[in-house]
Amino acid sequence: MSDTMKNTLLFGLVAVLILGTGFVQSWNVAVLILNMGLISAIMALGVNLQWGFAGLFNVGVMGFVALGGLAVVLTSMPPSPGAWAAGGAWRIILALGLGAATVIAAVMINKRMPKGRARLITMLVVLVGGFFLYRAVFDPGVAFVEAITPAATGNIGGINPGGVENFKAHGYMTLVGWGFGGVLAAGAAWLIGKTALGLRSDYLAIATLGIAEIIIAVMKNEDWLARGVKNVIGLPRPVPYEIDLQESPSFIARAEGLGIDVATASSLTVKLGYSLLFAAVLILIFVAAQLALKSPWGRMMRAIRDNEVAAEAMGKDVTRRHLQIFVLGSAVCGIAGAMLTTLDGQLTPGTYQPLRFTFLIWVMVIVGGSGNNLGAVLGGFIIWFFWVQVEPIGLWLMQVITAGLDDGSALKSHLIDSAAHMRLLTMGVILLLVLRFSPRGLIPEK
Amino acid sequence: MDLLNALVALSNFVIIPAVAYGSQLALGALGVTLIYGILRFSNFAHGDTMAFGAMIAVLVTWWFQSMGIGLGPLPTALLALPFAILGCMALVLITDRMVYRFYREQKAKPVILVIVSMGVMFIMNGLVRFIIGPNDQSFADGERFIISVRDFKAMTGLKEGLAIKTTQGITVVVAVICVALLFWFLNKTRTGKSMRAYSDNEDLALLSGINPERVVMYTWLIVAALATTAGVLYGLDKTFKPFVYFQLLLPIFASAIVGGLGNPLGAIAGGFIIAFSEVTITYAWKKVLGYLMPESLEPSGLVQLLSTDYKFAVSFVILLIVLLFKPTGLFKGKSV
Fold this sequence. Notes:
A: mainly alpha; two-stranded antiparallel ribbon; B: ABC transporter involved in vitamin B12 uptake, BtuC
């Protein structure tokens, strides 16, 4: 069987699984799986860039995904009224600038001054002084912003030109947010890469694990930024609203012509609209990644991955190339994160869990085939499908197993309640089985 | 008097909690560092191993409680600890046999083993949630305080109170016993010496006839005991919640790396360094400073450098600083 044939069959299997869900369960669930599969595929492409191309072990995917979500809020929401008045949000921006300046100054001192006690003392003075200056400017600004209608906003809002009344009409701003999500994630990746790349591989893993937790902590606690755990809801959309469709006579006529009731038709239309947008982004990134892989740059990356010492001897700047691809891969994850938040229509920092947003993506890449873009995309779809469907399957399995037990027995109810946790178990088993018996994944690297 | 009050407040809110937390971190970091020294990979499943051990302790404790067996003023969990350790040992040995051994024989790269440990983490996490559920479980019983605030105030007549929880006392005592046993084992027994030899130089150890599988088995047994103890102590002191153990991974790794991966002494030092920095940086110093400073200078704010929600950031920043300036850690660790 040729490779093309095998790949077609594998993707055909994904299509059958999703269509099957449509026929057996409901089309809404099927399209939702498709949409999340598209997003997961993009995340997997991002991780595959880092791991498959360059062998960088990034377990901070969650942080970059969350930054993408934050970017959507910062672009597509309207600026909160009053927050930008004197002493408000500008103070916060100024404080952040001061903080950055402090760090830059410390780094410069570390580079320029001769080693010794004088350098240490100057650096400490700059850092401690900078910290207190930062807090002195920052705290009043935050207090001011968070005091403005805390029940509704209490944050700085975004840059949507529509203002509070009309921001939902400017749904295209979420698309701008996708790009900004990539930029934000890339910025964070540059910072972390600058410090942690060039160290050993496990250290990068632990550093990225840490930065992801910190990003989530910041998003949960800095209410002025995106309302923290109070969540931002009602984000504008790049696609029409169901309610508008249901009121449009031409849409009603078309739905009736197809013989679907209007409510179902409208929700399917909206979801398929998202599918089209996501598919466009996926194709764009996939083609770019494929071109990159086949270019001299891609060959150099793989050469570095396979033998760093030899590549360095050939005059390649390994650390720099690593930084480059680390930033690129994280940016892709950021874009996917922004798309995810757009699909949800809300930003809920409390729902970011490393098992779901970091390690699951890793399972996708490994199962799909690390080093192969097509494999990553396939892994994204398949693993997402199982992630969603394992729960009903597990529930059904538990009901079959416990069918012999009395209805009131504690064991039975415990087993049935626990079926929800089958997901993690299954994912772990899938990951270990693939690593053991087919370590190159479903579609291996050529 | 003010100076004494300040000292008491400082011990109550900073020193005692940090010592207890530091002991828990040190035990956790010892496990990570031993795995790194002998098996040569960073074990991402360590947090969930702790959770698994602690879970068995919780279950056994409940069983004892239902039968009315207890230790009087001490928590019943101490009685359950040996059983939990045995259960956890069985789990890690099965895991090693079914999962890790294959890659060891293949001489897989460390990063592959890290990914494998990710899969193990998923499974252990799933198992724990499957058996006991994702919620908080309380299993501490017995006397709550060694010294309570009221008793302390009555005893000394000071304005500030000092409380030492039983769990804090037990944490420190148990940790000291564990560490003493561990070092005795590593330095005095034949098996311990062969473990250290294997960690220092694998080839040389193999040449001198050390059986690697035996070394690996003992390592897992010790790691299971340490992880369970750390997990139970943390659960007693705070509360048992499966997800929290996963989050402990970061401070534990930070402790191990700050001390120097592969170096047991470094792991202990690292644990206390991380714990003390976390607590001091996130503590609101208003009270202590209020006693020490003249009234006119008394601070108006809380004098809290960072909010407690950012305690992860503290361990992370320390980790980064050490990695940037002394990549092998404060005590000489390994750098593969």
